[in-house]
Amino acid sequence: LTPKDFVGKQVLVSAGPTLEPIDPVRYVSNHSSGKMGYAVARAAEMRGASVTLVTGSVSLDPPVGVETICVQTCQDMADTMLSKMAHADIIIQVAAVADFRPDHRETLKIKKTSDQDRMTLTLVQNPDILRTMGERKRPGQFLVGFAAETHDLAANAVKKIKKKNLDMIAANLVGGKDAGFQTDTNKMTLFFKDGSKTDIPLMDKQAVAHVLLDNLLTRLDPRG
Ligand code: C5P
């Protein structure tokens, strides 16, 4: 039986990739499937939370009982997350946000010419949504980031807690076959702002989501 230990809590979750248009038919994006973020939203809803899910373009069904808002670009996701965050007790930024976007979006499809063997795309940096939420966080709000790393997992995760003013970061190594993008399973380490950490061994993403929520619940500020 699922415990209803999130009753009365407002949870805001993001999931999936952002998609940054180049022209009307092309974009820059990444391999995020949305599975981990959707699992977190579903788990929180099952445990009694009132959940809003802000999702990039993925091929998953919207979770039952969750307010789901579809966005495309980092800028869309930033606008939505920042307008929703004031009402949230817990914010979990799982989305794989594109760090860069094309510096402008062509209104017409880009055509190749026969004498062209190279093409340069100029990218500009996207706003860091999580960092902005960290700056705006009010006392009692609990902010969680995710970090997918190919190396130096612990050092990078700990740095991001400070830099983005997080309460917890869920870090996982990507590039393996069992964990990370596209897979149905994941393993990760949770790092907390007090310096402690917890390993979550390889399991189904839905089970990982529940363990993540178990850990988060024990650290919530009673003012929240
Ligand atoms: O710094 P890095 O991109 O590794 O941090 C990952 C965390 O920051 C994730 O929670 C991701 O959703 C968030 N992020 C963001 N906006 C960006 C880039 C990353 O919110 N532009």
TrEMBL record:
Residues 11-224 are annotated as: Phosphopantothenate--cysteine ligase. Its cofactor is FMN; Mg(2+). One of its GO terms (molecular function) is FMN binding. It catalyses: (R)-4'-phosphopantothenate + L-cysteine + CTP = N-[(R)-4-phosphopantothenoyl]-L-cysteine + CMP + diphosphate + H(+); N-[(R)-4-phosphopantothenoyl]-L-cysteine + H(+) = (R)-4'-phosphopantetheine + CO2. Binds 1 FMN per subunit. One of its GO terms (biological process) is coenzyme A biosynthetic process. GO terms for cellular component: phosphopantothenoylcysteine decarboxylase complex. Keywords: Decarboxylase, Flavoprotein, FMN, Ligase, Lyase, Magnesium, Metal-binding, Multifunctional enzyme. CTP binds at residues 99, 109, 127-130, 146, 160, 164. Residues 7-217 form the DNA/pantothenate metabolism flavoprotein C-terminal domain. The keyword Magnesium applies. Pathway: Cofactor biosynthesis; coenzyme A biosynthesis; CoA from (R)-pantothenate: step 2/5; Cofactor biosynthesis; coenzyme A biosynthesis; CoA from (R)-pantothenate: step 3/5. It comes from the Bacteria. Its EC number is 4.1.1.36, 6.3.2.5. In the C-terminal section; belongs to the PPC synthetase family. Catalyzes two steps in the biosynthesis of coenzyme A. In the first step cysteine is conjugated to 4'-phosphopantothenate to form 4-phosphopantothenoylcysteine, in the latter compound is decarboxylated to form 4'-phosphopantotheine. This is Coenzyme A biosynthesis bifunctional protein CoaBC. The gene is coaBC. The chain holds residues 180 to 403 of 403 of the full protein.
